[in-house]
Write a sequence for this structure.
């Protein structure tokens, strides 16, 4: 990826995977950028007001530093994984101060050590309306301005992203995102990138290149931040062959788009994916099987990269 002018090919990591036999060597040898899966989320870092717990997040940062890896911080403001005390806040002034304190403390701790932050995550419902989170209920759309402005002050060098799923095909959610980014830009909010999570369903992948281009039309960086392609059960060789082609298509979509800086997978082995437990009709979403063997999907990514190399040389 770096040889093609991109910044990284990445994955998720946390205190469990950095000691998991099979996973850790793949993480060290195949990936350069890491997103903490759980330990940097609000409920884990500040479970009680003013009580910050950095033991696990520090372990992830230390592992990344020891292995020469970079970190994408994930995530500062999200409607999920927030403790009950935050959700129970009932007035604007208190919530504003709480958001500032949390972002200043977390971003400030890792100032200069994080490439990018997912400052706000999943603000939209599928119909393009705002989620009725405590942040939106009390502060309206301006909670996004607050989060980005606070994050920039805490680490002026970090890239600041808005992250969202379901922007892989035309529809109200990506339309809402483009309109929001335009408004943020008109208010001079310091936003640098859009993260498209890209949790995909095999058989519904073809629109990804076109939608990435729409996101890039904002002039911001774009990144594929949580890639997996789930396959309908029962999984067979024919479906895996299709998944290979789809991984190649998505990889090429980023390679072909100058403002796409990189791709992050959402897991190493199929056995550790969130898909089977959350969406039990689907399975096999990643590049390695349950025994950490490379699937044909891995070849799809590799072939996209090799093809790009030949084009660059030729």
């Amino acid at each position: 990826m770096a040889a093609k002018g991109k910044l990284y090919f990445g994955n998720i990591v946390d205190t469990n995977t950095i000691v998991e036999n099979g996973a850790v060597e793949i993480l060290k040898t195949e990936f350069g950028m890491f997103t903490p899966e759980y330990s940097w989320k609000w409920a884990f870092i500040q479970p009680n007001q003013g009580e910050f717990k950095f033991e696990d997040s520090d372990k992830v940062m230390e592992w990344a530093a020891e292995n020469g890896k970079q970190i994408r911080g994930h995530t500062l403001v999200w409607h999920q994984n927030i403790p009950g005390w935050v959700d129970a806040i009932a007035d604007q002034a208190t919530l504003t101060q709480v958001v500032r304190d949390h972002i200043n403390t977390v971003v400030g701790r890792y100032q200069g050590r994080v490439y990018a932050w997912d400052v706000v995550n999943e603000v939209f419902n599928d119909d393009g309306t705002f989620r009725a989170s405590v942040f939106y209920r009390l502060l309206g759309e301006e909670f996004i301005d607050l989060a980005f402005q606070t994050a920039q002050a805490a680490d002026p060098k970090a890239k600041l992203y808005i992250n969202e799923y379901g922007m892989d095909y035309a529809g109200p959610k990506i339309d809402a995102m483009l309109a929001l980014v335009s408004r943020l830009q008109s208010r001079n909010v310091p936003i640098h990138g859009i993260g498209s999570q890209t949790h995909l369903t095999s058989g519904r992948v073809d629109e990804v290149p076109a939608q990435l281009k729409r996101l890039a039309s904002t002039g911001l960086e774009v990144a594929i931040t949580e890639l997996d392609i789930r396959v309908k059960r029962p999984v067979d060789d024919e479906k895996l062959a299709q998944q290979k082609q789809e991984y190649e298509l998505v990889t090429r979509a980023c390679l072909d788009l100058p403002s796409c800086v990189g791709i992050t997978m959402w897991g190493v082995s199929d056995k550790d994916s969130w898909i089977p437990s959350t969406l039990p009709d689907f399975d096999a979403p990643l590049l390695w099987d349950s025994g950490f063997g490379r699937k044909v999907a891995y070849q799809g990514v590799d072939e996209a990269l090799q093809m790009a190399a030949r084009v660059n040389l030729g």
Observations:
- The radius of gyration is 19 Å.
- Residues 87 and 134 are 6 Å apart (CA to CA).
